[in-house]
Design a protein that fits this description.
two-stranded antiparallel sheet; about 210 residues; about 15% strand; 6 strands; about 25% helix; alpha+beta
Length: about 210
């Protein structure tokens, strides 16, 4: 015999649900993470920075060589001395009645500037940087509106060097002070030093004879 129970609700078993609780980082974990990230960033920068510098150095060197050669050509096109005959005369300075410029007087004569330099030692002491580095026509060398010599420095030294040993004949001890100030010779050494934006110095040497 079956007995049916009325008014009794039959319940379907419910699946068990697992509730996951979410939690964030603690303050200590954040600080430790920031410190580790900072250390990693410094290490990466220290590794990459030398590589970037090595990548730009050859470009600077090429530009420095080009600038040095251009200035050397400009200087060598000038006369040996202020007292040299510039119209193809037979007499040179350092011959009877035609003195050459004393070693202490090398440099621009009177109010000369680069546009009016007429002999090689007029360039002695010339020191130009960045926007002041102009070509022989007095124009800035730009490419797409950008000065390619921005950050460069050009320095020029001229002195007598008769025996071609690279040493100023009137400063044999190389202390920066002239021994006599009155020395003259028939050879002048022209040193063009180009300093790149990275601080590298590239020196180009040329010799001008008294002819």
């Amino acid at each position: 015999m079956y007995v049916k129970l009325l008014n009794q609700t039959q319940h379907t078993p419910q699946p068990i649900r697992f509730v996951r609780t979410q939690r964030g980082f603690t303050l200590i974990e954040l600080i430790v993470g920031i410190v580790i990230f900072a250390i990693a960033t410094v290490l990466v920068v220290n590794v990459l920075q030398p590589q970037v510098k090595k990548g730009i150095d050859p470009i600077w060197q090429v530009r420095a060589a080009s600038l040095g050669q251009s200035l050397s050509n400009e200087i060598l096109a000038k006369s040996f001395d202020q007292n040299s005959n510039r119209v193809g005369g037979m007499l040179r300075c350092n011959e009877p009645d035609v003195p050459c410029t004393n070693s202490s007087d090398l440099g621009p004569d009177n109010s000369e500037n680069r546009s009016s330099f007429n002999d090689v030692d007029d360039y002695h002491g010339l020191d130009i940087t960045g926007q002041n580095i102009l070509n022989s026509l007095g124009s800035t060398t730009n490419i797409d509106g950008v000065n390619i010599y921005a950050g460069f420095t050009a320095q020029i030294t001229v002195f007598y060097d008769q025996n071609v040993d690279g040493i100023n004949d009137d400063d044999l001890d190389q202390d920066g002070n002239l021994d006599t100030g009155t020395l003259v010779a028939n050879k002048k050494l022209i040193l063009v030093t180009i300093i790149t934006p990275g601080g590298e110095s590239i020196i180009m040497a040329s010799m001008k004879g008294n002819y």
